[in-house]
Amino acid sequence: MASTPWLLLDEFGFYQRLAALPGNTLVLFGQPGCSACRAWRQLLQDWQPDGLQQLAYVDVQQSMALAHAFEIFHLPTLLLFVDGHYHGQLRSAMQRQSVQQALCTLLASPAEEEP
User: 7-108: what CATH class?
Assistant: First the structure.
């Protein structure tokens, strides 16, 4: 994946914009005041994990309804979408190898239903 800027998503165009993106999109739900959220954004952009075509960000302060729809209670939360469809939550330590392994495992697993 080339170094691309984060796609900013909100609750109004979330599904339409994701549906238009082919491949694998990792969506980070966070907020500006969250230091872990900022760290994850920077690391993911720097690492550019294999298997991802797009990185996207949702500010939960601006899109509370979307965060509620996905039952997001802890920040940051990383959700994987494949061809615009929810695939599951990425759970990983903040280490490059751990992120890559968790992403590969999630991609190899069947898609999940949205919360």
Answer: alpha beta
